[in-house]
Amino acid sequence: MRHGFIISLPRSGSTLLQRLMKFNFKTIIPAEPWILLPVILARFEDSSRSVFGGKICAEALEGFFGSNGHSYDSAIRAFYTESLRVYLNTEADAVFYDKTPRYNLIGEELVRIFPSAEYLILWRRPVDVMLSMARTWQKNRPGL
Asked: Within 10 Å of residue 16's Cβ, how many Cβ atoms?
């Protein structure tokens, strides 16, 4: 099954790219599924806040899978592959792209876990990203 990731900062054009890619009927690209972000970040005690405690979760995962991380990576790969199989159902010949801008936080882990995946990286000047965030999410108010 072919799949890929679109890596970008928020407000960098990933939604426009998604809409353009949807014109290819063999490309399936839902809006920000966030499938892997919590699964991968759960392993890092300082990366997520949760009701169950990030530090405790990271320690539990290390205790269960071991400290080398190889088996945890394999479990993530199996989880993601099965999730795509169920999601795609009869679209076995389609290419699935996961467009979750916050995957820029786990890009290194994605490449390690999915070395044969396709990666599209969008780059926009960080100043323009911040200005777009401020205009869109903060309505030109300072404090972002």
From this structure: 10
Phi then psi for 31, rounded to 5 degrees? -80, 115
* CA separation for the pair 39, 34 (Å, rounded): 9
- Residues paired with residue 97 on neighbouring β-strands, in sequence order: 4
For residue 15, what are the contacts with CB-CB under 8 A and spacing of at least 6? 31, 99
Q: Check residue 140 and give its pLDDT.
A: 55
pLDDT of residue 79: 94
Per-residue pLDDT tens over the stretch 47-106:
666 677 778 888 888 888 887 667 899 999 999 999 988 887 766 677 899 999 889 889
Task: State pTM to two decimals.
Answer: 0.79
φ and ψ of 95, to 5 deg: -105, 125
**Cβ-contact 47, 41 below 8 angstroms:** yes
Bridge-partner residues for 99, per DSSP?
6, 31
Tokens of residue 96, six digits: 């699935």
Residue at token pair 């405790």 = 56
CA–CA separation, 114 and 110 (whole Å): 6
